[in-house]
Amino acid sequence: MKKTRQVLIFLFEMLILGIMVFGLVYILRANIGVQQSIQGVDEYPAPQPTIQSSELNQLVDEYPPPLSTHFPTLEEVDQTPVPFSRRTIDLRTPQPTRTPFPTPTLRPTVTRRPDIKFTPFPIELHDSPVGVIYYAIRKPVNRSIQVNLPPYTNEYFQQPIGTDGLPNGKPSNLFLLADAVSKLGIDSIPFGVYPSPSGEYIIITHSVEPGVKPYVLNLKTNEVNYPFKDSMGGHFYEWHPDGEHFIFGVSGIGIWLVDAKTLETSELVTFQPNQLPQGAAISPDGEQVAFIAENYSESGEYLGEYLWMVSIHGSDAHPLVPSGEYSYLYPESWSPDGTQVVYTGICQAHLVDGEQQRQSLCIYDTRTGKVVDLKSDANMTTAWSPDGRYLAVMGWDPDVEPCPSTDHPPEDLTCDYQGEAIYLIDLENGENHKLVSGILPTWSPDGSILAFLAYEKGVNNVWTIRIADNELHQITTDGAAKAFTLQWIAER
């Protein structure tokens, strides 16, 4: 019995020893597998050679390739420490400044063209108001006939005016703008119509983004042409006094002089992209163009908006004086003698007693370079009288409530007349007073009468007011909604 017990103990001890040996072997084999796995990770993925079709069979025969069992020694490994890469800035060293891009500096214009010849109409003060008033009414369009037209259009009329400043006969239809529109294939109502001083051409502007596109209508041939090859928008500024050319601001390009007859164009001044002059006007002798645009220093620093000047031949644009932010130059901004330019802006473009000056009417004298502040809150749509004594301007009407809403049909413009008035500034004595409620002041050729659009007694019409005695006369009686265009051209 005792001997049997000893045998069982011996067998149990041998079993424990076997289990320990088996565990030790398992651990050793696992360690070898880990080392081989690490080697495999270091070698994966292996670079893939470019395989030619002729080598494919040889590579297949040699597959799988023998695994390398060599581990590099410490002597074979480059143990040079890799420096930690970190960008450091020495605040004591001046850092380079960032160059603005693009620098919107006024670029040089095209080569001066002294070969352009102009024959302006003589600058004269007429002795009577005889002439023609151009105006437009808005009317619906029969879309069953012209499906590509908008639901309404402008019909333009000319009203002859006699020596007494009153209508001389009935108004006549100048042309139905829809007819010109249908020739061009325009699918929306034109923005404006501008007859030339010679009466031979009319500029029709069509709204695009940005601005408008100009079309030249020849009244003798009834032809309509577009002067630009590319589809470019911009702003029509003014006719040249010769009646054959006009200036147009092309968005992001510059101010162009356009020949209405030949459609040839020449750049007077060139701008950077996204720049567009804030108004431009031609001098009475046709030799200079005043305009408002941004100004920058040679280093690209923004200096603000300035009043500029360029000759009609181009290449010599130069800034005159700061005009302040949101300044603007309206057509016919030159005095009749060509010595002064009026614009809307901040006349003293700096702080006075710590306060920024508000917008007003400013007059720049081309002879002295000085600016005079007219201190006028009414500063829209300026118009010099032919003798240079008065300025007729638009402003808010304190006696009339503005239109409560703009939610009305587009052919109904009566609401847009409310809340605005025409003011008269006497430049000899400085007096500034409200003349009449209305919009778009337009001088008669002799300067004795102002024509304007007004909403009176439930209808809107063309009216006139005599400066000497404030006598009012109603010129049109149709009561139809008038478009925002009004011109009084002397008889030639």
Write the layout of secondary structure elements.
Layout: H1 2-42, H2 56-61, E1 131-140, E2 152-161, E3 172-176, H3 177-184, E4 190-195, E5 201-207, E6 212-218, E7 223-225, E8 234-239, E9 245-250, E10 254-259, E11 265-270, E12 280-282, E13 288-296, E14 302-311, E15 318-322, E16 340-345, E17 351-352, E18 355-356, E19 360-365, E20 371-373, E21 380-384, E22 390-396, E23 420-426, E24 432-437, E25 439-443, E26 449-456, E27 459-466, E28 472-474, E29 482-490
Antiparallel strand pairs: 1-2, 1-29, 2-3, 4-5, 5-6, 6-7, 8-9, 9-10, 10-11, 12-13, 13-14, 14-15, 16-19, 17-18, 19-20, 21-22, 22-23, 23-24, 25-26, 26-27, 27-28
What does it look like?
Helices cover 11% and strands 36% of the residues. The protein has a 4-stranded antiparallel sheet with strand order 3-2-1-29. It has a 4-stranded antiparallel sheet with strand order 4-5-6-7, with helices on one face. Mean pLDDT is 74; it is low at 36-114. It starts with a helix and ends with a strand. The chain has 492 residues and is mainly beta. It contains 3 helices and 29 strands. Strand 8 and strand 9 (245-250) form a beta hairpin.
In what order do the strands lie side by side in the largest sheet? 3-2-1-29
- The quaternary organization reads as single chain
| DSSP helix fraction | 10-25%
DSSP E strands, number:
29
Shape: elongated
What gyration radius follows from the Cα positions, in whole Å? 41 Å
What is the residue-averaged pLDDT? 74
In what range is the share of β-strand residues? 35-45%
The secondary structure category is: mainly beta
For the termini, the CA-CA separation is 153 Å
